[in-house]
Write a structure and sequence with these properties.
Elements: E1 2-6, H1 11-23, E2 29-32, H2 40-53, E3 61-65, H3 71-81, E4 87-90, H4 94-103, H5 109-119, H6 127-133
Parallel strand pairs: 1-2, 1-3, 3-4
């Protein structure tokens, strides 16, 4: 599988760099930037160029974006609707990208999307909630 990472600013580039800091080289990640002044058409062209330049297979390509219904998501969704990529996930985070790096050579895009959707609730934690789960010192 191949993953196009795109979010506002250089989010996609930062995510690939962070994944590579932890796991090493991640050749299946193709990060893109989305800069101020660029619009939906500009971003669509960048994504299509990445697909064409790297001969990415539409049925093996997943786009990961930062915000649901943001410009990166909307551009990617339009390409998915045209069959140029298999699917789009919104909510890009380091835990999701690490999961993707581990899934790159396993299964299908659909299976990977299902795994990410099922696992994603475990990625968000709050200290206050975690402390509530801890037993009081008097409980020992």
């Amino acid at each position: 599988m191949d993953f196009i990472l795109v979010g506002h600013g250089t989010t996609g580039i930062a995510m690939k760099n962070a994944v590579e800091m932890i796991f090493g080289e991640s050749p299946s990640f193709y990060p893109l930037s989305f800069k101020p002044g660029e619009g939906l058409t500009d971003l669509s062209k960048k994504i299509e160029k990445t697909i064409d330049d790297h001969s990415l297979s539409s049925d093996r390509t997943l786009v990961v974006t930062d915000l649901f219904c943001g410009t990166p998501y909307n551009a990617s969704a339009a390409l998915a609707m045209k069959g140029k990529v298999k699917d789009v996930i919104a909510g890009m985070s380091l835990p999701i990208c690490l999961e993707l790096a581990q899934a790159a050579d396993k299964g299908t895009v659909s299976e990977t999307v299902e795994h990410i959707i099922q696992a994603s609730p475990a990625y968000t934690r709050a200290l206050s909630k975690e402390l509530q789960k801890q037993p009081d010192e008097g409980d020992f």
